[in-house]
Write a structure and sequence with these properties.
alpha+beta; OB fold (Dihydrolipoamide Acetyltransferase, E2P); five-stranded mixed β-barrel; 5 strands; signal; OMP_Slp; Outer membrane lipoprotein, Slp family
Length: 176
C-alpha cells in the first residue's frame, strides 16, 4: 500500500500540467503584463514573456509571418481563456512561413518569446501600437468542439440496487 502511494506521488511530482518545458518557464518574466509593455515597450526589450490569446489575423511577409493576437489570461495549462476580457493586442513574429488557414482567426495560441519593440498598424480608423514578440515557442491549441450529452430525465430503473443479472432484464433496457 505504501509503495503504491509513493509511486502515485512520484508520478504527480514529475508530471507537469504545462505543455512548456521548465527551461522556457525559467526564462519567462511572470509578473510582466501586456498593459505595462503597452506603456513603454522599449523599456522591456529583450524580456521573455509568456502570453496567449485568440488569433485575429495572420500576415505572411517575405521570410517571416506576423500573427496579430488578442491577449487573454492563461489557465493552469497555459491555454488562453475566454476572450471576453483582454489587456490589448500584440504581434507575434515568427521566422518562416505559417499557413494562414492553420493559424486562422479565432484559434487559440500561446507564445513564449522576447519583446523586440513595437509596431504601428491600422485598427479600423485609428492607429494602434502593438508590442512585438519574437517567438521562440508557439503552441496552437486544438479547437474545442461541443459534445452534446443527452440525459433522459424520465429514466427510472426499479431494480437499480438489485444484483447484476436481474437489472438487465427490465424492459427499459431492451434495445430498440
Amino acid at each position: 500500500m505504501k509503495s503504491c502511494l509513493v509511486i502515485m506521488l512520484a508520478i504527480i511530482a514529475f508530471v507537469s500540467c504545462s505543455p512548456l518545458s521548465k527551461e522556457y518557464l525559467k526564462q519567462v518574466d511572470q509578473d510582466l503584463t501586456l498593459k505595462e509593455v503597452l506603456k513603454n515597450a522599449d523599456q522591456y526589450k529583450g524580456t521573455t514573456v509568456l502570453w496567449g490569446g485568440a488569433i485575429i489575423e495572420t500576415i505572411n511577409k517575405p521570410g517571416e509571418t506576423l500573427i496579430i493576437v488578442m491577449q487573454t489570461t492563461l489557465d493552469y495549462e497555459d491555454r488562453p481563456k475566454s476572450i471576453d476580457w483582454s489587456e490589448g493586442r500584440f504581434i507575434v513574429k515568427q521566422a518562416g512561413f505559417l499557413d494562414p488557414e492553420i493559424y486562422a482567426k479565432d484559434r487559440k495560441i500561446t507564445v513564449v518569446g522576447k519583446i523586440s519593440g513595437k509596431e504601428d498598424f491600422p485598427l479600423g480608423e485609428i492607429r494602434y501600437i502593438y508590442p512585438v514578440v519574437e517567438a521562440t515557442k508557439l503552441i496552437l491549441w486544438e479547437k474545442l468542439e461541443y459534445q452534446p450529452f443527452y440525459h433522459d430525465p424520465f429514466y427510472y430503473d426499479p431494480w437499480y440496487w438489485e444484483p447484476y443479472p436481474f437489472r438487465w432484464y427490465h424492459p427499459y433496457h431492451r434495445r430498440r
